[in-house]
Design a protein that fits this description.
Length: 503
């Protein structure tokens, strides 16, 4: 899709003095490729090293040093392209993008302008209201990252850290199909999720391994595209949405006050939620692009592409669809459980173990497992400040707990009690039940005795119930469960209580 909006997309306009304005957004996402070494050198890419501790002679642009392509970076770029159903270009070429900056020791960046490794693809996004929209992706190209200038360590000098210099980036360029801050946020979130599933980028925006250049323009509905600005290096979904909205409103104010929007590069200030001018926006010719003479074109065959395709995991959209179709989960539950690949893997392991213990098909127990994972487990992990990979209860231990609930050993309240004990002690459910005497009581004799005691203690309410106040039944149930410390089987209590009250 290009300029036309999806029929399902929610409209968003900026209210101006002269009427409504439509916003047009395209995003250039820079995603650091998951690899142990840089794009053209063997230097480490590990985050957090001491400044300039991971710099090869190639990264520092020492005379006579020549780049050598990292094949793993190529493989990850191709796998990413396949994940967005994009055209894979079996012939691609690197170009030099020439500009001066202190953290660019070569005086140029090795990138791909004319012949990128990945051509056109698309990504479907889902908005909060459930509507979907397909965002076109124009290209993915490989390029090397620059270093980092540090300005706050000395009052009169700046420092340069080249640890990041030469790290492999995928620049993922969307079509100008985005029409609202919400769509921009949903696109980046969906892209991050996809990259993490594929394993081509860790998506850690706090560490700078994924960041976006935000291109924004405004127009009256149906008019040609307006002049766009580019806001550089925005590093969170929330900030991207804020940058889109602020920049759109700023441009409308400029136009309606009689001014002209200038094509320029801007910076986003997360403290104020505003953008400010950085420099005039250069065009491609300003960078004097030309083919890099030190690098041969990238050429690969169908067998390599097939190998990359075979290595892809089940992707989020396919997994969500399977959870709904095969397991009977709601779109909400399917979305929650597939948000992260680690969460989906944990859930599937717990589901398989529970189905095995109960000797039932997975589809019959999926809802029970999904509800407990998304509710009780996620709530506990949030309270403890842990993630799913660090859960004190593993999938098999959870399956044991759920099986004890399914076979009647534990009531709902007792399951929650045992689960809390599992979180605290790390012990298994069966051991906790045995040690603490928490088995559910189904003995009708014991339950009848408790019911009789409750009825004798509340003769007035018994008379009211038998006089037609049916709502008092819940009161009696609560009293009996309290008398039996929550261990009585709820179904047996309900049946015996009704029989004794109505008898």
């Amino acid at each position: 899709m290009s300029d036309a909006d999806s029929a399902t997309a929610a409209p968003f306009t900026v209210k101006g003095a002269t009427g409504d304005w439509e916003i047009v957004v395209g995003l250039e996402v820079h995603a650091q490729v998951t690899a142990q070494a840089k794009l053209f050198s063997g230097a480490s890419t590990q985050f957090g090293a001491e400044p300039n501790a991971q710099v090869s002679l190639v990264d520092a642009a020492m005379p006579g040093m020549l780049p050598v392509i990292n094949g793993e970076c190529v493989r990850q770029a191709v796998r990413t392209g396949l994940a967005i159903n994009a055209q894979i270009n079996k012939w691609s070429r690197f170009d030099r993008k020439n500009y001066f900056y202190p953290d660019l020791p070569q005086g140029y960046q090795i990138s791909q302008l004319y012949h990128p490794i990945v051509g056109e693809g698309s990504l479907e996004i889902t908005l909060d209201d459930g509507t979907t929209k397909t965002i076109g992706i124009e290209r993915i190209h490989l390029e090397q990252d620059a270093g980092k200038s540090v300005h706050d360590l000395h009052p009169s000098m700046s420092y340069v850290d080249l640890n990041r210099s030469g790290c492999a980036l995928m620049e993922i360029v969307s079509r100008p199909d985005i029409r609202s801050p919400a769509e921009a946020g949903a696109y980046v979130a969906a892209l991050r999720q996809l990259l993490r599933y594929v394993g081509s980028c860790d998506g850690n925006m706090d560490e700078g391994s994924m960041r976006a250049d935000v291109n924004v323009s405004v127009r009256k509905a149906g008019q040609p595209f307006g002049t766009r600005t580019e806001t550089k290096n925005v590093n969170s979904v929330r900030f991207i949405m804020a940058a889109v909205e602020h920049e759109a409103r700023r441009q409308v104010d400029v136009i309606e006050s009689g001014g002209t929007v200038v094509q320029e590069t801007r910076l986003f200030d997360p403290n104020s939620g505003t953008t400010r001018s950085m420099r005039g926006k250069e065009d491609a010719h300003d960078y004097r692009y030309f083919p890099d003479p030190d690098l041969l074109p990238l050429v690969f065959d169908d067998a390599f592409i097939d190998q990359c395709r075979a290595s892809l995991p089940e992707l989020p959209a396919a997994k969500r669809a399977r959870y709904q179709a095969d397991l009977g989960l709601s779109p909400y539950l399917a979305g929650v459980l597939t948000a992260e690949q680690e969460t989906a893997a944990w859930f599937e392991t717990a589901l398989a173990a529970t189905a095995r213990r109960l000797a039932k098909p997975e589809a019959e127990v999926a809802l029970r497992v999904a509800n407990f994972v998304s509710g009780d487990l996620f709530g506990a992990l949030k309270r403890l400040g842990r993630d799913i990979g660090d859960s004190p209860v593993d999938p098999d231990a959870l399956s044991e707990l759920l099986a004890l609930g399914a076979d009647g050993t534990l009531s709902g309240p007792l399951m929650k009690q045992v689960f809390e004990a599992m979180l605290e002690t790390g012990e298994r459910a069966a051991a906790i039940v045995e040690a603490r005497g928490l088995k559910q009581v189904s003995d009708t004799g014991a339950i009848d005795a408790a019911i009789q005691a409750v009825l004798e203690a509340n003769p007035d309410k018994v008379a009211e119930y038998r006089g037609g106040k049916d709502k008092l039944f819940g009161f009696f149930v609560g009293q009996v469960m309290r008398a039996m410390a929550g261990k009585a089987a709820p179904g047996v209590v309900n049946d015996r209580l009704k029989a004794l009250l109505d008898g």
